[in-house]
Write a structure and sequence with these properties.
Elements lengths: L4 H38 L16 H19 L4 H4 L4 H7 L2
Helix pairs in contact: 1-2
Length: 98
């Protein structure tokens, strides 16, 4: 993909807005989750909290996502294998080595 100049230009444009995109998406998730919790409390019921699958992200997850997105850009610049270029957090590297 990164060998395609058109893709790389589009990816550059994406990187310029990634912060706002991630923040907006997470804010939507927060609002929906708070509404879900509020409704559960008003009805005094657990509305399938175990099935709720759009939880807001932790700030650390957002920052890791941004870092990986920026690291992927290097793939276009260098000829190094992608796996060696992206430094995953220690616990993810261990899980991926299995």
């Amino acid at each position: 993909m990164f060998a395609c100049e058109k893709f790389c230009k589009g990816y550059e444009a994406f990187l310029e807005i990634i912060d706002s995109q991630l923040e907006e998406e997470n804010n939507r998730k927060i609002i929906k989750f708070v509404d879900f919790i509020d409704e559960s409390l008003r009805k005094k019921t657990q509305l399938g909290i175990k099935k709720y699958n759009k939880l807001p992200w932790l700030e650390e997850w957002i920052e890791n996502t941004k870092k990986i997105a920026l690291d992927l850009k290097k793939y276009h610049i260098q000829d190094a294998p992608l796996k060696k270029m992206i430094k995953l957090p220690d616990n993810q590297e261990d899980a991926n080595s299995n």
